[in-house]
Amino acid sequence: MDEFKLHIIEKIVDEAGAEGIDESCVEIPPDPKMGDYAFPCFMLSKKLKKAPPMIAEWLKAKIKPDEVIEQVENAGPYLNFFVRRDVLAEKTLREVAEKKEKYGSCDLGKGGKVVIDFSSPNIAKPFGIGHLRSTVIGNSIYRLHNFTGYTSVGVNHIGDWGTQFGKLIVAFNSWGTEKELEKEPIAHLFNIYVKFHEEAKIRPELEDEARAWFRKLEEGNREALRLWDLFKNLSLSEFKRYYKELDIHFDSWHGESFYNDKMRAVVEKLKKKNLLTLSEGAQVVEVGEDMPPALVVKSDGATMYMTRDLAAALYRLHEYKPAKLLYVVGGPQKLHFRQLFKILEMMGERKCDMMHVDFGHYLGMKTREGNIIFLEEVLDKAVELAKKIIKEKNPSLADKEDVAKAVGIGAIIFGDLVNDRVRDMEFSWDKMLSFEGETGPYVQYAHARICSIIRRHGKKPDSKADCSALKEDIEKELVKKVYAFRQVVADAAESYKPHLLAHYLVELGQTFNTFYTQCPVLKAESRKLAGARLLLCDAVRQVLANGMWLLGIKAPEEM
Predict the structure, then answer these.
(1) Quick one: 193 and 56 in the same domain?
(2) CATH of the domain at 200
């Protein structure tokens, strides 16, 4: 809620007698010289039977400056408002000082639960750079929703079932060793899985063996279950190591196998609702809406991804009773989720907002090791580069290892999240490892720089500092940027687009750097001015820290 917008709306409604004006009707002008807020008068034209420029001129004469509004100007059809800088500064900086790490949070979700399905790698497959998008986008959406009043439930729907396990068992029995498996589980399983496919081109009977082993697994064969359990636990151990590095948490690790005993009930419910239709021996749901039928049961009686996802959705709806059910899954699955949501609606089970939070993929990935770029390789390179830069620029830095990890991993996460999630991204080692320009390290450095200023001052910023001392235009611009954080957070959460927050943090860092160049802090003209500027610096530091946390990035105090 923007108190200044509400004050402006109240003024307009009182003078014009208009109804239906809300916060969305008041805009932020592109140039601060045009005002802090602008009201386009087009929407009053029909009621007042006047041209918008005439309405703007009329309202300008009617609305007088007060304790909040310093000046009102009309420009064509727009009515522009200038907020008193001391009121803006005092309200904003006091609030940041009071709320600290909670500044920018709100009660938008009113305690409702939001279940977020994200990351969801496949067991025995490498955790590649391609998995990064769902993982970091989902994590940021998880944090944004907690911050805006929801209770987030993070679900890692691990791919731990399917015919690939029959192939893996055959491959392991043929070429695998438990010693190699213990040493490098993911790499070993991946190598023998690739070898299986190479050999199957020459010996097609291997595919039959794999299907037979998967049937044994489904029937509960002891050896098949032992190997499946071994592959799964070793893979999960590796995945959890990556999640720890990325500082990502899940509330549920229920993978596909968890729903094995729940799919029959789904099929029975679809039958009771008369939603299943026979098609060439298979059972499908005719979903309509220009979509092809959704295959639920194959002609041989086997269930499908759709069956499993219906079981998972029903479990989550009944277990968590969420206000939202989100799936952070790549764009190619759009049709699948349209069908899923439609079937749940036809079953009478669409009891909350459901959203496929789709994203684009990395393009042009190439590496000497093949067409998969391991996430571990990218993280290691980023951390090593950060260590090298620290050694060159700040060799006496304490906690070099921790800072290098925070900066390197932060660069990778920010490099992903700064892009609109719906767009494909060209993979580039140079871009991925860049610490220059609009990057995570740029934002982290702005935070560390402010921490240094506060340390050199020697005292904590005083939340009661006299904000009326802030008279420069750049100071007002910086305060306005800090104030805007709340709306940016709400917009990023509601649109499921963390890049809005990432871009805001870059802009905040740039505005701060301009302020710092123009306005001395430690050598200000007076003690009063120094205190006000130090409080402003601390507010920017807090907002940078809060914003980076929402993106899943650490905020080092020294770099």
Answers:
(1) no
(2) 3.40.50.620
- pTM for the structure as a whole: 0.94
Is the pLDDT at 519 greater than 60, yes or no?
Answer: yes
Q: Are residues 155 and 223 in the same domain?
A: yes
Round to whole Å and give the CA distance between 296 and 277. Answer: 10
Q: Which domain holds residue 424?
A: 375-551
* Residue 513 and residue 440 in contact, taking contact as beta carbons nearer than 8 Å: no
Tokens of 181: 């498996």
Q: Are residues 395 and 513 in the same domain?
A: yes
Q: What is the pLDDT of residues 142-161, one digit of tens each?
A: 999 999 999 999 999 999 99
- For residue 437, give the DSSP letter: S
Contact in structure between 409 and 275 (CB atoms under 8 Å): no
Q: How many helices (DSSP H) and strands (DSSP E) are in the chain?
A: 20, 12
- Where is 267: in which H helix or E strand? helix 263-272
Give which of 531, 536, 501, 502 is closest to 516, Cα–Cα. Answer: 536
CA distances from 406 to 131, 306, 387, 448 (A): 20, 39, 11, 12
User: Which tens digit of pLDDT belongs to each residue from 300-345?
Assistant: 887 889 999 999 999 999 999 999 999 999 999 999 999 999 999 9
DSSP one-letter code for 534: H
Count CB-CB contacts under 10 A for residue 39. 28
Residue 382 and residue 470 share a domain = yes
The residues pairing with 339 across neighbouring beta strands, listed in sequence order, are: none
Closest C-alpha among 118, 127, 373, 137 to residue 236:
127
Supply angle C-alpha 99, 32, 471, rounded to 5.
65
Q: Cα(474)–Cα(335) distance, rounded to whole angstroms?
A: 49
